[in-house]
């Protein structure tokens, strides 16, 4: 494009190992740059989704102060007595809202779901989560702690506000993908405007090092891919997130301050006729290099995942330009309603 800014200017090293390239991309030029700058960033973002399925996003418009408020509020929530958390329990995959206690979810690969109950008992994920959905959906209330105390009221306010900020960023990133795929910039707007997204607060409690020594298969969160369009992941500085490389090794997605790890989910991969990759990832005990203390416990880890989805009622069928006789590329999947797809996937990993 004439006058366009070289793409490299917005891209710095993130992770580059074992054929996994996770670029660091500054989003500011997309949000407020010239049309040429915007286009350059859109191409970079789309390439990252097509290449490793992962990228680090900086200058994304969500202020660090807002993120730190959410982490604080999340830590306060998980510090509540177990009985209070249990009173806000997650109920069904359709609702996907509420508190999920330790060991209740076991993230797995699709081919493993037959043995989910046995797996959950033998090597449960070492985590607890709080799931927050779009507010105001008939019959599917969020499990807010606002009736408990002032801290619970505050929790509701800050989470609602963060939910909206992340929802806007989802729309912007989908606009970047649309441009990068030579679709009209606002192509996806009508697919994501409802905000059928899911804000998941994660707490991986401190865990004895012996647990990992005794169970070679033990992880903090099992290997899986995400289900929806994209995930916005905010991590603390503890580490442990890894993606699976094409070589089959696991590569650390090292925490980088003030960035969001953004990855594509299975539904976006399907929508793109697999031109975009939904890459498997997991959370292990942090890499040995970080772990030089003498304690026999690994400290806690907190993270926040905002799972973005197309509107539940939207029919997701292969995107224009991703298949066709002229390209000699067949359409790989039947169309499916977004809500049906997501409920099927959630039902496979969690017990009611
Ligand atoms: O905690 C993390 O860093 C990742 C969690 C995750 O991948 C998930 O919940 O889908
Ligand atoms: Fe994930």
TrEMBL record:
Pfam families: 2OG-FeII_Oxy, DIOX_N
Keywords: Iron, Metal-binding, Oxidoreductase
Coiled-coil regions listed: none
The Fe2OG dioxygenase domain, residue ranges: 195-310
InterPro entries for the chain: DIOX_N (IPR026992), IPNS-like_FE2OG_OXY (IPR044861), IPNS-like_sf (IPR027443), Iron_ascorbate_oxido_reductase (IPR050231), Oxoglu/Fe-dep_dioxygenase_dom (IPR005123)
GO BP term (any one): small molecule biosynthetic process
Keyword presence, Transmembrane: no
GO molecular function, one term: oxidoreductase activity
Family in the record: Belongs to the iron/ascorbate-dependent oxidoreductase family.
Name recorded for this polypeptide: Fe2OG dioxygenase domain-containing protein
Gene source species: Penicilliopsis zonata CBS 506.65
């Amino acid at each position: 494009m004439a006058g366009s800014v070289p793409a490299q200017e917005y891209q710095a090293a993130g992770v580059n190992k074992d054929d996994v390239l996770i670029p660091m991309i500054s989003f500011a030029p997309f949000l407020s740059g010239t049309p040429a700058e915007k286009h350059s960033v859109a191409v970079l973002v789309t390439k990252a989704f097509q290449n490793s399925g992962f990228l680090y996003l900086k200058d994304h418009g969500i202020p660090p102060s807002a993120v730190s408020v959410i982490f604080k509020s999340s830590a306060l929530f998980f510090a509540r007595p177990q009985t209070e958390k249990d009173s806000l329990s997650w109920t069904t995959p359709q609702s996907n809202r509420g508190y999920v206690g330790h060991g209740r979810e076991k993230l797995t690969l699709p081919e493993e779901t037959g043995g989910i109950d046995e797996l959950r008992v033998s090597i449960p994920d070492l985590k607890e989560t709080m799931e927050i959905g779009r507010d105001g959906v008939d019959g599917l209330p969020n499990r807010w702690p606002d009736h408990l105390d002032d801290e619970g009221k505050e929790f509701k306010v800050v989470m609602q506000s963060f939910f909206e900020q992340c929802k806007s960023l989802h729309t912007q990133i989908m606009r970047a993908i649309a441009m990068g795929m030579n679709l009209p910039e606002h192509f996806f707007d009508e697919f994501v405007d409802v905000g059928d997204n899911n804000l998941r607060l994660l707490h991986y409690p401190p865990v004895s090092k012996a647990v990992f020594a005794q169970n070679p298969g033990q992880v903090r969160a099992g290997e899986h891919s995400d289900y929806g369009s994209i995930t916005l992941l905010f991590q603390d500085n503890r580490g442990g997130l890894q993606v699976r490389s094409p070589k089959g090794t696991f590569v650390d997605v090292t925490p980088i301050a003030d960035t969001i790890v953004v990855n594509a989910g299975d539904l976006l991969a399907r929508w793109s006729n697999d031109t975009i990759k939904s890459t498997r990832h997991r959370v292990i005990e942090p890499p040995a290099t970080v772990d030089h203390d003498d304690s026999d416990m690994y400290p806690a880890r907190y993270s926040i995942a905002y799972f973005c989805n197309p509107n539940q009622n939207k029919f997701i069928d292969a995107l224009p330009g991703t298949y066709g006789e002229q390209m000699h590329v067949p359409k790989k999947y039947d169309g499916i309603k977004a809500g049906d797809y997501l409920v099927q996937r959630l039902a496979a990993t969690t017990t009611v």
